[in-house]
Amino acid sequence: MRALGSSVLAFEIIIAILFIPAAIAQSSVSTNLIVLISVIQIVLAVFAMGTMGKKYGIYLGYLTQICIILTGFIVNWMLVLGLMFLGLWIMALRIGRRTDAIKAAKKAS
After folding, report:
1. Which residues, other chains included, contact 25 with Cβ-Cβ below 8 Å and sequence gap of 6+?
2. pTM for the full model?
3. In this structure, are residues 101 and 8 in contact, taking their beta carbons and an 8 Å threshold?
4. Which residues contact 32 (CB under 8 A, 6 or more apart)?
5. What is the pLDDT of residues 17-71, one digit of tens each?
């Protein structure tokens, strides 16, 4: 679960960085606020990646997804990307849990 979840979060860091120039060009929100929002998203994603093995790491990942979706109020296409990454996040967790269960079963036998 850690590898897949961390991969999704790593790509979200790239999206958060690319959000800055797009938001500056398309919205009337101040540049400082745009950079602050992006930095918060990056910090959340990094903390979520670091704590993926723990229960609260998954919740931090969900919080990162919500933040990405909320940036859709600043730049419209971020809503679409946020929903896509939410779907990827859910699938990464489901597939990761199955993979962890298969690995545990092989290890036990």
Report:
1. none
2. 0.88
3. no
4. none
5. 999 999 999 988 999 999 999 999 999 999 999 999 888 999 999 999 999 999 9
Report how far residue 96's alpha carbon sits from residue 81's, in angstroms, rounded to the nearest whole number: 22
- Give 72-108 as a DSSP string: GGTSHHHHHHHHHHHHHHHHHHHHHHHHHHHHHHHHH
User: 10 Å Cβ neighbour count for 96?
Assistant: 18
Q: With 0-12 CB in 10 A as exposed, 13-18 as middle and 19+ as buried, what is 9?
A: buried
To which residue do tokens 């990454």 refer? Answer: 85
CB distance 44 to 63 below 8 Å: yes
Return d(Cα 73, Cα 80) in angstroms, integer: 11
